[in-house]
Amino acid sequence: MIDVLPVRTPTLPPATHTNIYRVGRCVFDVASPYPDEQARTLAWVLESPVPVDTIVLTHHHADHVGGAEALRTELRRRDVPARILAHADSRLPFTLDGTLADGEVIATGDPAHPRLTPLHTPGHADGHLVFLADDGDVICGDLVAGIGTILVAPPEGHLETYLDSLRRLLPVARRLYPAHGPDLPGPETLAMYLAHRAMRTEQVRAALLGMRAEGLTVTALSVAERVYAGVPGVEFGIAAMQVAGILVWLEEETTGNPAKEA
User: Fold this and answer.
1) Structural domain boundaries, residue 20
2) Which of 5, 118, 184, 188 has the fewest CB atoms within 10 Å, measured from its CB?
3) Strand arrangement, sheet containing 98-99
4) What Å distances lie between residue 222 and 25, 68, 149, 237, 243, CA to CA?
């Protein structure tokens, strides 16, 4: 089964926690840098009915990896040969014990999900992986969120690459287990994300044309202030980062530049 432990992390609002998932011998996104949360994580890991020896990271962002090295150290102190695995493109402040490639099967030792297949799904982050079970359950990191939305901000974030990653999951995902918020229905959520990004892109395109026609200075922030005006609780600094990604995509569409390499 897929067990979850939300831990407090320094993540982007509106999220305040990151979900750690446990499937058999594997734990995913050991996230918190805070000692109290690391202690809670260790206790939860040690309670597992299948001894945990593999720490898997969906990507390298700080709110997904902040407790990984501490957990590896604590398990090794207990004579568990713990290892940390991630995609080769991940940029981490500690040494990996191995890398995971697209399509490489992980044996979990869990009766309900005996194997998980990593799929390379960049766009939000280089080296981003999701983990697909045979029944269509997906541990999906920051591909989608159960609270808020996913930031796709240049230079690492790339909108067209991110949309391709969403499309890749659409035919195979039954249920999504994101890093932030509750689990979600797969096809409906992915279709909604694709439609939402298309809607926002058209809003940015219209704002851009209107501001140019009015002779206004165009920046990611000024466009965000027009597009997100009236959206409750919006943080315009974060919205501007999102808009910057859309502006890059519109420029690529105009110039015909190829999408970012996956």
Assistant:
1) 3-184
2) 188
3) 3-8, 17-23, 26-28, 54-56, 83-86, 98-99
4) 48, 39, 20, 10, 10
DSSP code for 79: T
> What whole-number distance in Å separates Cα of residue 37 and Cα of residue 16?
13
The 10s digit of each residue's pLDDT in 172-224 is 999 999 999 999 999 999 999 999 999 999 999 999 999 999 999 999 999 99
**What CA–CA distance (Å, rounded) separates 159 from 129?**
16
139 and 54 both lie in a single domain: yes
Tokens of 178: 């994101």
Could you tell me which of 101, 102, 96 has the C-alpha nearest to residue 82? Answer: 96
**262 located within any domain:** no
Number of domains the chain contains: 2
What's the whole-model pTM score?
0.94
Of 21, 49, 246, 50, whose CA–CA distance to 130 is shortest?
Answer: 21
Task: Please report which residue ranges of 114-235 form alpha helices under DSSP H.
Answer: 159-169, 186-213, 220-227
Last residue within a domain, chosen from 155, 184, 213 = 184
